[in-house]
Amino acid sequence: MFNNLREDFAAHQRDPWRQGVWVMAVYRFGRWRYKVRPALLRRPLSLLYKFLKIWIQITTGVDLPCETRVGRRLLIEHFGGIIVSGDTVIGDDVTLRHGVTLGLRRTGVPGAPVIGDRVDIGAGAKILGPVRIGADAVIGANAVVLCDVPAGALAVGVPARIKHRQPALQEAL
């Protein structure tokens, strides 16, 4: 837990006032509490987590449940309006901006997004349903992604269209 917290802190430019640091600290605490044995000791930690999660939702506008599988160094670039489903899987070095939704397409229908490593998700983007976003992909601002995005591709528009980036452009990013 503490190694992940150090990496999360470094990803947020070692600034304790960035709300993404707070969100990640509560998320990592929520994941860590599952490892506490016996259950009698875990119960007060679970209660504390629930209060902290509600406090984080109110103060930052980010809903990141501990059931979500998050890789290392998730960067929450801008806070506010970020909703992540508990079934979502997020890879390493992913960037989220404000207004992003990663979740189910419809209530009661299983399947949440799987986000690859080093994915950059623009402001207001919605990634819905059992879609896979490949490594190094870029999701444009306000894109609504309902289908898989291959590695290194760009998804833009409503619904999102997949555009393959030029090799020189990929290196510049």
UniProtKB/TrEMBL annotation:
Enzyme kind, highest EC tier: transferase
Transmembrane segments: none
Stored PROSITE patterns: HEXAPEP_TRANSFERASES (PS00101)
UniProt keyword Glycosyltransferase present: no
Keyword check for Acyltransferase: yes
Family, as annotated: Belongs to the transferase hexapeptide repeat family.
Name the record gives this protein: Serine acetyltransferase
Species, as recorded: Roseateles oligotrophus
